[in-house]
Amino acid sequence: MNPRLRTLACAGTLAALALSAPAAVASSPAATVVHFTSGVVASGEPRNVAAGPDGNVWFTYGKDGGKLGRVTPQGTVTNVTAGIPGNSGLWDLVTGADGNIWTTAHDTGVILRVNPVSGAVTTFTPPLGGTAPTGIAALPDGSIWYTYTAWGGGIGRILPNGVVDIQAVGLTLFKTPTDIVAGPDGKLWYTLKDRPAIGRVTNGATIGITEFTAGLSPGDAPEQIIQGPDGNMWATLQGDPGHIARINPATGAITKFDSSLPSNAKPTGITSANGRIWFTVRDGERLGSLDPSNGDIDMMPPLTPGTKPNGMTTGPDGNVWFVGRDHPARVSRIGILQPKVGTATVTARNATDATLSIPVNPNGQTTNWYLQYGRTAFTSVGGFGTLPATSSAPEAVTVRLEGLRADTSYKFRLTATNGAGTDLGATVTFTTKAGADPGQPGTGGGSDDPVGTKERPVIGRAVVADPIAGKVSFRLPGSASDLPLGSLGGQLPVGTKIDARRGTVRLRTAVKGGTQTGDFWGGRFTVRQAKGAGVVTIVTDTTPLTCGPTIYRGPAEIGAAARSLGTIAAKKKPRRILWGKDNKGKFRTQGHDSVATVRGTKWATIETCTGTVTKVVQGAVSVRDLTAKRTVLVRAGQSYLARRKK
Fold first, then answer.
1. Is 134 within 8 Å of 121 (Cβ atoms)?
2. Are 323 and 359 contained in the same domain?
3. Phi, psi of 322 (to 5 degrees)
4. Which domain holds residue 285?
5. Domain count, the chain
6. Would you tell me how many other CB atoms lie within 10 Å of the CB of residue 273?
7. Does residue 541 lie within any of the structural domains?
8. Measured in whole angstroms, how far is the alpha carbon of residue 120 from the centre of its chain?
9. Residue where a domain stops, chosen among 312, 335, 358
10. Are 210 and 203 in contact (CB under 8 A)?
11. What is the tens place of the pLDDT at every residue in 179-212?
12. How far is residue 338 from each of residues 57, 418, 512, measured CA to CA in Å?
């Protein structure tokens, strides 16, 4: 066990039993928002965003500080400027069937084609100069369609042979056509912001335009439109109040859904991901999602003032991306997917250790992982940790297993969990090399290691825990979940919390020259052992006791009944107890007010409201009083109270 990660923050979990994964910004469903500002032109006012053909996400700058931006799944931002005319005022963008990025240059009135590999830029000029193009869409036949607002407004088309034409017949002029997308019916759909209306374009020998207004109110101001997962079209309405609208592509019927937004919040960007409709609320500084099956809307917590979330898309990684156009500008990801565990490999193996490498994609959410291994069953936990939410690409998790047995077959698997779900990796097997096995049982101040039953403990890194009576559970460092310690027991990392309130656990730990064992029951504790040291510290449960008055003190006239009640209450003083037994091993228990070092004994550490009591049944215990700063030897039949500092 020695997991090496990109981050030092670790939180162990066992996902199959409901692990916790904190999210930076959460809604229902679980989601995490991560903002990327490094590399983004701070004053560039990003406007729209789209999935690129290269696995990255691309976005436009409304101001000309950066022209086109590109962000990788890991959050690295670069800007494409070569070949793009100055003051272009790029508006919208789309990936064409030819694998290029197409974008509208609103301020210069042209359409640009950008090769995502070479960066080569080709300019297409509409027949009418200064058309002020806005939205852009791509059809499978290779044609590119766009809306424009100058000359009364219209719809343009670039054929696969490069010919550019325009079409306005049937479109309501001077009403600001804004966005356009390909629909589920082979047609194109657009928004008419100032009428308001939703339009449909039939692509064929004759271009037909139909506009739908039923269900809309004056001032609804349709902004962006997409094809939803349910086969309908969905659009944002920027009116007051704002709405999300569903459009039936067969009939054009429009249904509005109330997003309970404040006045003038202005829903803007919209996309479909993971079965839901996601949208930005620009001036309301919010994000939301809608369930298309019933129209229920979940609003996420407010963003930092000044974000101004604008365009939105579903990235090649399957998560939701949006741009923030205020200062500083940003491109952001909403992680909505469960993690993905890739194919594991064994990069090195020796007689008693092996190094494993497993790719894990956290998918934009804080992701906890843990690795189990064993010979015939997954009895041991070999590594655990946390991947940050910054990436939505596979990150290498490396785990070194130690204390293995020579020339022995093992299997392992990794489980990863975030707020969206759990992924269980495939089981991989390997065999350790034959050779010297220095970890054979020894005496070293403790009991012998039972040959062939469990993996070996490693000083400062791992202990072996076996339940020998009742029910015992454990919790990995940083986890919020308890897991049952199976009947086979197994290797656990130092720092694990063990709950032995309903059972007895036998700990086998490594010391110089061999191993030692100790039995513990009756309470909860954390196992500690410094690297290079043999002493094992059992830290008792530090959860505060609910301590009230130890005796009832009321007015005398209340009478004997009340005093009797107080006496009963006094007998139920809260306390917490942990029993231990060893055979001349190197164990010590650390309580709130004292540390007890044992010498081969049976003893109890009792936390009370008054202090920490050490009770010895057999042998002797050296108690260090942390308050009085003195050491006391407590023998069998004696107890010592280290009083709590007042």
1. no
2. no
3. -145, 165
4. 32-335
5. 3
6. 20
7. yes
8. 37
9. 335
10. no
11. 999 998 889 999 999 989 999 998 876 788 999 9
12. 20, 6, 43
Residue entry with tokens 């949208």: 279
CATH code at position 342: 2.60.40.10
Tokens of 129: 């100069």
CA distance 275 to 230: 8
Q: How far apart are the first and last CA of the chain?
A: 42
DSSP conformational letter for 599: S
Q: How far is CA 337 from CA 378, 415, 417, in A?
A: 27, 15, 10
The DSSP code for 315 is -
567 membership: H or E segment, kind and range: helix 560-571
State whether 346 and 235 are in the same domain: no
For residue 100, the 8-state DSSP code is -
At 255-266, the pLDDT tens digits run 999 867 777 889
pTM flag (> 0.90): no
Asked if pLDDT for residue 468 goes beyond 70, the answer is yes
User: Looking at residues 145-149, what average pLDDT do you find?
Assistant: 95
CA atoms of 189 and 226, how far apart (whole Å) = 8
Burial of 635 (0-12, 13-18, 19+ CB in 10 A): exposed
How many H-runs (helices) and E-runs (strands) does the chain carry? Answer: 1, 52
Q: Of 518, 513, 423, which Cα lies nearest the Cα of 464?
A: 518
What gap in Å lies between CA 417 and CA 360, rounded to an integer?
Answer: 10
Which residues share a beta bridge with 443? Answer: 514
Residue 612: name the closest of 568, 621, 422, 311 by CA: 621
Distance CA 247, CA 227 (A): 9
Residue 533 lies in a domain: yes
Beta bridge partners of 473: 484, 499
pLDDT of 442 strictly over 70:
no
484 shares its domain with 572: yes
Q: Are 265 and 281 a contacting pair, CB within 8 Å?
A: yes
Q: Are residues 404 and 549 in the same domain?
A: no
Task: List the structure tokens of 341.
Answer: 């565990």
Integer CA distances (angstroms), 178 to 56, 131, 265, in order: 25, 13, 19
Is residue 58 one of the residues assigned to a domain? Answer: yes
d(CA 307, CA 327): 7
One domain, residues 272 and 161: yes
In terms of domains, do 324 and 387 share one?
A: no
Q: Tell whether the model's pLDDT for residue 423 goes beyond 60.
A: yes
Of 335, 362, 393, which residue sits at a domain end? Answer: 335
Domain match, 80 and 171 both: yes
Q: Which helix (H) or strand (E) holds 566?
A: helix 560-571
Q: Tokens 């657009």, residue?
A: 190
- Report yes or no on 179 lying in a domain: yes
* Cα–Cα nearest to 70, from 109, 104, 45, 36: 36
C-alpha 611/C-alpha 644 separation (Å) is: 4
Q: Can you tell me the distance from the alpha carbon of 329 to that of 309, in angstroms, rounded to the nearest whole number?
A: 10
Burial of residue 150, with CB atoms counted within 10 A of its CB: 0-12 exposed, 13-18 middle, 19 or more buried = middle
Give DSSP secondary structure letters for 198-237: EEEEE-SSS-EEEEE-TT--TT--EEEEEE-TTSSEEEEE
pLDDT at 46: 96
Using CA atoms, how far apart are residues 473 and 455, in angstroms rounded to an integer? 19
Q: Are 499 and 492 in contact (CB under 8 A)?
A: no
Q: State both tokens at 549.
A: 């008055």
Q: 569: part of which helix (H) or strand (E)?
A: helix 560-571
Residue 489 confidence class, pLDDT cut points 50, 70, 90 = confident
State whether 158 and 84 are in the same domain: yes
Q: The domain that contains 111 carries what CATH number?
A: 2.130.10.10
How many angstroms separate the CA atoms of 24 and 29, rounded? 13
Reduce the secondary structure of 426-465 to three states and give it as a string. Answer: CCEEEECCCCCCCCCCCECCCCCCCCCCCCCCECCCEEEE
